[in-house]
Amino acid sequence: MSALTIYAEKSAENGERFTDFETIETKLKTIGVQFERWIASHILNNEASNDDVLNAYSDSILRLKNQYGFQTADVIKLDSTHPDKVVMRQKFLEEHTHSEFEVRFFVEGCGLFYLHVGEQVFSVLCEKGDLISVPANVTHWFDMGENPHLACIRLFTNPEGWVANFTESDISKIFPTLDELQRELTHD
């Protein structure tokens, strides 16, 4: 289940949670974030290559490339056996910005985006089928969990790919991790 929780900037207490897709989409639109659901043009099996994944979503990818001028699209896959999972997680958990628009589509698995906008923090749990955008220069961080399981299509306007500008803030440490949020949601 996708979920949006909106917190006050300085507190992970008493956040307002939404799980209805249309409400999440509407709330995120107010801060310039695109939230969509995509459906593959054909069924992908577990052995699907990155090219198979890109082909299954080619119409949606082309629409966004035309709309925003994206130059490249790729697929990143991470699971609990990835040798760099700890290092990658720590890098993504640090609050940062990008000089370009960031888009992620979850082909499988899940991840937790935090967007720090003004005096609020928007926590967005994305799952299979969800697309989220992060506007250029919006401070944010991402948690893939202690034992990641995800495959994402990434779209870039910069051919160099993922380039982060870290803020040196420790704000991410006061908000729930992906694993903590998932435990909380199963108890609700």
Word description of this protein:
By secondary structure, this protein is an alpha+beta fold. It has a single domain, classed as Jelly Rolls (Sandwich). Helix content is 24%, strand content 34%. It is built from five helices and eleven strands, in the order ββαβααβαβββββββα. The chain has helices at residues 21-29, 50-56, 58-68, 85-93, 178-187; strands at 3-8, 16-18, 35-37, 72-78, 96-97, 102-117, 120-127, 130-134, 139-143, 150-156, 165-166. Strands 1, 2, 3, 4, 6, 7, 8, 9 and 10 form a nine-stranded antiparallel sheet that branches. A hairpin with a 7-residue loop joins strand 1 and strand 2. The radius of gyration is 16 Å and the shape is globular. The mean pLDDT is 92.
Total helical segments: 5
Overall average pLDDT: 92
| CATH 4th-level superfamily | Jelly Rolls
Output the helix-strand order. EEHEHHEHEEEEEEEH
Helix share, percent: 10-25%
Helix/strand/pairing category: alpha+beta
CATH architecture: Sandwich
Approximate strand percentage: 25-35%
Overall tally of structural domains: 1
CATH topology, anyone?
A: Jelly Rolls
Query: Span between N and C termini?
Result: 12 Å
> Are there runs of 5+ residues with pLDDT below 50, and where?
none
Shape: globular
Largest sheet: 9 strands, antiparallel
CATH class annotation: Mainly Beta
Radius of gyration (CA) equals 16 Å
